[in-house]
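User: Please fill in residues for this 268-position structure.
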């Protein structure tokens, strides 16, 4: 994506984000779209977004594909990697060569798993508003080319947009309201992960294709992802209403089951 085509797509992305910032916007769908747009605009292979919950713990909230989600989950489980460090320091880390010995020394488990997944370069950008950090955006590349200054600035701008979306003042004026919104989003993500697995097994397709079909149906029916997922898990929605994806991808390997939400984090 180069020249005017890239600039036009970038303008469309920011208009798309602005249109989403209504009083009752779907934060999970917005962040999922941002992860996908990062891949489109920055010529990277995958992207993931982490958010901190009400207890100060990072959680995976969006990813461009299942491989990135599992790698981010692995990083959180082992408490290492550039995304974790980026959140703690509030400082971006770019053009990290995952094949270099010093990277393996700094994050031995993360670097090894990332290389096994096929990634050779990674970048991490804080979701930060002034001095406040609420998460991190992680980018992954399977080819060893560097991001230039313009792409780095764009990646940080997309991370800033995500932060503004989460902390927008019109609906999150007080800290307890904000924590409730974040907790609800994180708990809702657990329901969505469960539905992805259910649909992938039912259709004998990949988790990514199942999620794409689920999202497409929800958006076509003007349904929130979390609301539709809750109905499916509760058994009061017939999933036959959702058009199954075309059989183009092999099923993904089973992902680790998400941890159950704590009482404080359950959506009301």
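Assistant: Residues filled in for all 268 positions:
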């Amino acid at each position: 994506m180069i020249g005017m085509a890239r600039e036009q797509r970038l303008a469309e992305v920011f208009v798309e984000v602005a249109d989403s910032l209504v009083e009752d916007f779907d934060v999970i769908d917005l962040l999922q779209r941002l992860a996908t747009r990062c891949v489109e605009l920055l010529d990277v292979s995958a992207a993931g977004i982490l958010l901190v919950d009400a207890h100060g713990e990072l959680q995976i909230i969006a990813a461009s594909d299942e491989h990135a989600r599992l790698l981010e989950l692995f990083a959180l489980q082992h408490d290492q990697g550039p995304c974790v460090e980026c959140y703690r320091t509030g400082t971006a880390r770019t053009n990290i060569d995952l094949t270099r010995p010093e990277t393996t020394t700094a994050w031995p488990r993360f670097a090894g798993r990332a290389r096994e997944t096929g990634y050779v370069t990674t970048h991490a950008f804080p979701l930060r508003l002034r001095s406040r950090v609420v998460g991190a955006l992680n980018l992954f590349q399977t080819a060893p080319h560097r991001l230039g200054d313009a792409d780095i600035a764009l990646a940080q701008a997309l991370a800033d947009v995500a932060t503004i979306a989460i902390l927008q003042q019109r609906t999150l004026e007080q800290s307890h309201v904000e924590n409730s919104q974040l907790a609800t989003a994180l708990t809702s993500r657990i329901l969505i992960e469960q539905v992805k697995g259910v649909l992938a097994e039912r259709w004998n397709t990949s988790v990514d294709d199942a999620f794409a079909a689920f999202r497409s149906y929800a958006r076509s029916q003007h349904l929130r992802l979390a609301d539709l997922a809750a109905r499916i898990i509760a058994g009061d929605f017939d999933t036959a209403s959702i058009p199954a994806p075309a059989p183009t991808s092999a099923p993904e390997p089973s992902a680790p089951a998400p941890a159950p939400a704590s009482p404080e984090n359950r959506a009301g």
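For context: The first helix runs from residue 3 to 20.
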